[in-house]
Amino acid sequence: MERLFQEIALFGPAVAFNIYFAAASIPIGFVFAVFLALGKASSNPLISRLSRGYIYAFRGSPLFIQFFMLYSLALSFNVGVWKPMGISWFVLHPLFIGPLVLTLNTAAYTAEIFYGALRAVPRGEVEAARAYGMSRVQQFHHVIWPNLIRLAWPAYTNEVVFLFHATAIVYFALPVIGQQKDLMITAKELFERDYNAFLHFSVAALWFLAVSLVVFFLFGLVYRRLMRHMPAAPGLRFAPKWLR
Amino acid sequence: MSEDFAFWLSYLTNGKHLTWYASFQFTIFAALFGGTLAVIFGLIGATLKNSRFFPLRLIGTIYSSIVRGVPDVLFFLFFPLAFEQAVEWFIASQVCTPELIAAQSAAWPPCKEANWFLGTPEYLILASVSLGLVYGAFATNVIHGALRSVPKGQLEAARAYGMSASQLLWRVHIRQMWVYALPGLSNVWMLIIKATSLLSLLQIADIVLWADRLGAPNFLPAVGLVHEDWRWRYYLVLFLFYILVTLLSEKAFEAIMRRAGRGILSEVRG
After folding, report:
1. Is residue A234 part of a domain?
2. I need a surface site. Which of A20, A101, B35, B203 has the fewest CB within 10 A?
3. Nearest CA to B21 among B193, B249, B234?
4. Cβ of residue B213 closer than 8 Å to a chain A Cβ
5. B46 contact residues in A (CB cutoff 8 A)
6. At what angle are helices A12-40 and A183-194 packed, to 10 degrees?
7. Which residue of A has its CA nearest to B215?
8. What's the burial of A195, exposed, middle or buried (CB within 10 Å: 0-12/13-18/19+)?
9. Which positions 81-100 of B are in contact with A (Cβ < 8 Å)?
10. In-domain check, residue A65
11. 218-247 in B: which are within 8 Å (CB) of A?
């Protein structure tokens, strides 16, 4: 039992890396996704095509490949671009490339969620806003966005948890620098030392589960606040949707 | 021009490239076998979840929620390692004598004779099983939902015809369930395809590992530097390959959906 607690404490610093990767990529990915979703719904065929293509490409290919591809792409620019500029230590650092790729990836998934919600915004409300003479920006700000975020929030919560789970593969694709190890690398190294798969991997799983539950709780609070005008706020359950 | 063409032709058909092309079979095998197992585990899980016997229902519910609560990579790595250890532990309990255990210096296995060497085929099968287990949990939920979507009247009509419980399950319930499950199962299939890119984590020389080897700066003493770091080109090819597979799967599922939904599709859409 004491061994278990020691083990849990041992993983404490490692989970910070997973949380960092998720926390760094979620806000930027969120903003990017809003623009992508609006782009996909745009009446301009060029913008619509580009956004569609981007979303399809990043949803249709594995994150693992995206990591390798973008990292090797960054590497190939190293001698020509990053080195002369003196920023190669920064651009090639996993703590930069990791969130970058995760952002690009989550933006595509989130944009698809937002696009679905955008199409579900009640037409009547938009028409009413237009009848009031609201400008397009006003329409978006006062009518479309509040509806969109409420419709999208449960699915978005799910996506955030998926993204947090996806941080598990960051260091399988990128180099580990010094002691900067996330949960999976820590578990793997401990396993290679004493071959106790059940202990190490279970503790890593426990950490993932615990953080996921915290995310569900926090996002549930936000959802309650978003739905505060409703008579009985429907709560978020653990894993409301099952698929990304 | 023709020299260029000859170079590219011979470059792309050299031994290493041929091995790379051949390694696509691992990915395809893992996707197909893993997908089949996922449906089987999904059916078992959904049946357990629907069971009237409480412990079985509990097992089904725990299976579908715990596996889903942790990253797929973790389970994907854990299951083959744990299975290997379990087998080695069993062998050790049969063959290891105290002297042999005392002679063993490494932490695992208990004695050298209990070592179970796993080659690519074994790892591939274990990887497929863990894919099946992980995505079976997803499929459990999809199938569980689909079983509940089958109109009650259909089941009542079957019962009124005097069908037994198993006849009802196999001839009516599961037959009609597919239409409702297909959209969800198509999503699970997409997830499995994407998860097949992780095979290289289990030491399988799959397409990802070969892309890395082939793209690395290539220097031959006889000709000098053949190419510098081309890894991103190889990964770009894989990126496009996966998008293409997704595209084809989407088309295939549309066709299956049309076929499975003959006669009742309007009801599903409505």
Report:
1. no
2. B203
3. B234
4. no
5. none
6. 140
7. A72
8. middle
9. 81-82, 85
10. yes
11. 228-229, 231-232, 235-236, 238-239, 242-243, 246-247
d(CA B73, CA A182): 13
- CB contacts, 8 Å: B75 with chain A: 205
Angle at CA of residue A126, ends A120 and A131, nearest 5°: 165
Identify which of A60, A66, A197 has the shortest CB distance to residue B82.
Answer: A197
User: B2-269 belongs to which homologous superfamily?
Assistant: MetI-like (1.10.3720.10)
- Residue A234's CB is within 10 A of a number of other CB atoms, namely 11
Contact call for B229 and A72, based on CB within 8 A: yes
**What confidence tens digit (pLDDT) does each residue in A100-144 have?**
999 999 999 999 999 999 999 999 999 999 999 999 999 999 999
* Number of compact structural domains in chain A: 1
Q: Distance (Å) from the C-alpha of residue B251 to the closest C-alpha of chain A? A: 13
Which of B71, B85, B242 lies at the smallest CB-CB distance from A168?
B71
Is there a cis peptide before residue A62, judged by omega within 30 degrees of 0?
no
- Chains A and B form CB pairs within 8 A to the count of 124
ipTM over 0.90: no
Which residue's structure tokens are 């037409």? A123
**pLDDT at residue B270 greater than cutoff 80:** no
CA angle (B103 as vertex; B97, B109 as ends), nearest 5:
75
Residue B112 has pLDDT above 80, yes or no: no
Tokens of A57: 């490409």
Domain that holds residue A71: 2-226
What CA–CA distance (Å, rounded) separates B30 from A222?
A: 40
CB B75 within 8 A of CB B133: yes
Question: pLDDT for A33-86, tens place per residue?
Answer: 999 999 999 999 999 999 999 999 999 999 999 999 999 999 888 888 888 888
B133 contacts on A by Cβ (under 8 Å)? none
Query: Tokens 């009413």 correspond to what residue?
Result: A128
CB A229 within 8 A of CB A150: no
Q: What is the pLDDT of residues A173-219, one digit of tens each?
A: 998 888 888 899 999 888 888 888 888 898 999 999 999 999 989 99
Q: Domain for residue A238, yes or no?
A: no
CA distance to partner chain A, nearest, from residue B168 (Å): 28
Mark B85-102 as b/e (b = at least 16 C-beta within 10 Å): beebeebbeeebeeeeee
The CATH number linked to A197 is: 1.10.3720.10
pLDDT digits over B129-184, tens only?
A: 999 999 999 999 899 989 888 888 989 999 999 999 888 888 888 888 888 888 88
- Backbone conformation region of residue B218, classed left if phi is above 0, alpha if psi is from -120 to 50, else beta: beta
